[in-house]
Amino acid sequence: MIANLLLSFALSTGQVPATAATAPATAPTAAKESAAQKAPAPKVSPAPKAAAQPMAADVKNAVDQMQKFYEETRDFQARFEQRYTYKSFGRTTKASGTVRFLKSGASMRWDYLKPNEKVFVVAANKVFAYDKEAKQVTVSSIETERLSASITFLWGQGRLEREFDIQKASRDDLKGGIALELTPKKPDPRFQKVFFLIDAKTFAVKESIVVDPDGSENRVAFLDVKTNAGFGTEAFQIAYPPDTQVIRMDGTAPAEKK
Predict the structure, then answer these.
(1) Of 19, 83, 108, 220, which is least surrounded by CB within 10 A?
(2) What is the value of pTM for the model shown?
């Protein structure tokens, strides 16, 4: 999910920078720009939100068991397959690689292997984005304690029901588990909804779908999941050649090369 969510949050991401190719922007014509400048912006009143219904008992049980699974998980690793579907352009990009989470230090690492080799690491309130082909590393700051519960629950922190109205999902493309639909209790500029497909036995997340504000979808499937393997913070260090350009966006000056 998470590349989009997380990197959407800090890196905001479609991540930080982005795991999927950036959609081309279409510039308006000069005539449209002129008309837009002259015409006053219409006032739009937000539609009142319907009162949230209490979580169904079976949904609450699934959420509680999922939360418990991650609270008892010290570390997590898996292969992932990602599909990003652009609603406006009607096209889908695909990517795959490996992912790791570590509860200690609230760390995560996404190694993209296809179509291009890139690494995204969140550790020690920093986000590291390494593009192997471009020979470039970008370092940004992130306040992990301010991330959405849709991310922090993976580290055994945060409560999903406090931030989301949760119900069974009716999507036909979420099969083979317990499908949940999460809608933010308060409007969130980062996404419209989040969907989880949960393993009915382990209650681990098998797939996640993040729906962007424009309706585009970032879908991630987790495969060959392993937990409590015992790796530590060394797994979140990035090795790169000495001629790699380091761009600091965290207010720290890059170290001088010796």
Answers:
(1) 83
(2) 0.75
